[in-house]
Amino acid sequence: MPKLKIIRDPIHKDIKLNEEEISIVDTPEVQRLRNIKQTGLTCLVYPSANHSRFEHSIGTMHVAGEIAKNLENIDTELTKIVALLHDIGHSPFSHTLEVEGYSHEEFTREKIKKMDFTNYSPKEILEVYSSKGIEGSLIHGDVDADRMDYLVRDSHHTGVAYGTIDIPRLIRSIVIIEDSNKLGISEKGRNTVESLLTARYQMYPTVYMHPASRISETMIKNATLDAIHDKIFKLEDLSEMDDIDLISTLRNSEGTPKEIIKRIDKRKLFKNITTLRYSDLSPKERWTLINLSESSKHRLETEISEFYETRIFLDIPKPPKMVEHRITVLMDDKKYRLDEISPLAESLKNAYKKSWSMMIYLESETFNKMPELLKDGNKFLFKFIENTPIKNPILDVLNEHGTVQGVTKLSNLVKKSANDPEFHLELQKLIFCGLVTKKIEPVRGTFRYDYKSIYTES
């Protein structure tokens, strides 16, 4: 009789683990996740948000297994192991410290290569982890086990009421799309996916982008960057550290890193002097800001800080990812993207845009002494931004050809594969900033996406 262990989970209740899963849970790579907070420094706003990447990983493993059991020709056990390991490359405080090119996916791959498994090789696990096929889509796809777990778990631990999703019904609605080797949902699951979209949108400003969380996470990010630049530790060391290691190292350092972590310890946070909302910025200004490199942003912060003789941090979040909107829905034996048939999904994309904002933070001691900043806060930043032209191959193609019909044609003109994730990321950023428009055109019972540039460099 195989040995089983039952973990009691507040979200999924009893989660059963077999011998190999237990042995993987007990590895240092997974145990390290016990001391990495799932939601960064959100606990400074929601005191009970102390849940970890460890419990999220076990929850993701459980959900991935439940989905896999309902699908044909899926290796359920392999899928569960990959789901269990999907976050082992995270730095302390999770996504907060993905700085200077740090990629938790790359460090996850490197860790898996060095691990020993009973029934699978590291190569087999990595093939699924990196796959865009069915097993990989279960863990990091349009609607995946990762997202299903963290929304409900984060809602539970923060105490907000926005993350409620009918996970069992959503699991039952997931199907394999014939001839595409991808996952989609049946028509009966459409409303459940829409509830997931709504929950995620509501959690976005309430939890993930809460102003106090953003300030504290910007502070610890800058403390960490200063520590790396001061050679206190290396960027790659973050893949072995947990929250406790990092906090201890910063507390025992000297200079700026130590000062900032002391402020966080005492909750003596920087103050927000101005908020630049999506509608306050031109498309070019949005593009310039979201494409600032870490070094350029640091140089800009230094210039502004020296000019005003106080320390200033810029908080420029990445554009929100909205991958759930593109999941395939099967209706009347036809395939549609969710945002083609769901007015709610389409409207939420615009709502996400409008909820994006960047913030400028100032040391609390000088907050009340800076009337010149507060008086015209939404303009002073751009005195320091160089007026450089936008150089982008997608924009160049669209400016040359006018409206381009279909993403495949556009990718060919840009000389990129239609499946290239970097091409799609760049295109989505252009659309997000308002430099490119995307129009959905019905064509013979399906839909085509037409793209047009609305920006030319004068």
TrEMBL record:
User: SMART domains from the xrefs?
Assistant: HDc
Q: Which InterPro entries match?
A: dGTPase-like, HD/PDEase_dom, HD_assoc_2, HD_domain
A molecular function (GO) term: dGTPase activity
User: What are the recorded Gene Ontology BP terms?
Assistant: dGTP catabolic process
Residues in HD domain copies: 53-151
Name the chain's protein: Metal dependent phosphohydrolase
The organism named in the record is Methanococcus vannielii (strain ATCC 35089 / DSM 1224 / JCM 13029 / OCM 148 / SB)
